[in-house]
Sequence to fold (102 residues):
Amino acid sequence: MTQTTADRRLVAIAAVLLMLVFLLTGCAAPEKQVVIQTQIIEKPVPVRVKIERPKECLDRYAVDNLPANASPDERNNAILAEVEQRAACESKLRAALTGEGE
Fold:
């Protein structure tokens, strides 16, 4: 063997070793890891609520039941009674919406 063929073999072996080093270091690189973090975000969401009509909410209130020829005193009393009826209905509806009526 001459010096030039020995040098060529040495260069070829060095090249193969260098390629093996590059291949092995490429495989040893760590993969990117996905980090999952759970966050709780509180956001009000409108929810449809089915509310039954309270018995205090009438189809016809006191003024609706007055005859056409009612006296002013009867009308005044009917108006005052209707205010009370509507207030009772409103309080029952509010209680049902907030869940206090259950």
Observations:
- Helices lie at 3-27, 72-98.
